[in-house]
Amino acid sequence: MRVTASAVSLNVDDVPASSGFLQKHFGFREEMSADGLSSLKRDDAAMNVIYLRRGLATRPSDFRDTGAAGVLVVFVVDDLNAEAERLRAEGVVLTHELTEEPWGERFLQVTDPNGVIVQLVEWVTPAA
Fold this sequence. Notes:
Elements: E1 7-12, H1 15-26, E2 29-34, E3 37-41, E4 48-53, E5 72-76, H2 80-89, E6 94-100, E7 105-111, E8 117-123
Parallel strand pairs: 1-4, 5-8
Antiparallel strand pairs: 2-3, 3-4, 6-7, 7-8
């Protein structure tokens, strides 16, 4: 098998709201769109983020009406402190303040208009 691209596809109620959130606050651009669909990309990201309107008949029937509950969309960044400041300056509420785990993961979380959690992570050397 040879993987040529990666994407995460999330069911949401309001596709333009989630799409706009990633474009405005995380520098994604819309690569493709249609009624009930938005595919977003960044040149430096290893995956596309795709939003689909809940209930689309093209989705398998056992989960076409479910939302993206419990899913984290995670981006690893170089300077988490700067990102936290930037997001606050843009009026984005941090739904989980910057936290450092014993294993060296520093992270914060924000929530988009559809309840999708976007987590930013920076890896640091764990404290001894």
